[in-house]
Give the backbone structure.
Amino acid sequence: MERRIYTRIIPTVILSATALFLLGDYFFVNTGVRAVVNELTNWSVVIGAFTALLAVTTVFLFNITRVVHKTKGWIYNSLTILFLVLTILLGLTQGTTTVSYRFLISTMLGAIAISVNAAGGLKFASGIYRSARAGIWKQGYFS
């Protein structure tokens, strides 16, 4: 039970409170709520940057391990590393408004969006299949 508090209940309470503040700021004009929303927005940028750094590090380490051990498809992993480093270097040296940087980001994000949507669709379809197999439709839960 103690672990459930840390892994389920506390994050749910934090998310619910944040959502209420954001919704409250949208519907009501209050300087106190506005200050809290600004602070939450600033923290979301910090958390998002940390998440992006963690994701880039994970992708880099995963692909470098596969290249070093020359597993099947290692050439594609080396290309992933090359374009990851190229995108970071272009963004740091030329800025994020150049045509080359925009092209790399749009092609990378397109592939990532397709993968995420496909995974979500697969999970959705799997849930429907499992519920149909379990006979939930016949038991009257959804009627």
In short: The longest helix spans residues 31-68.
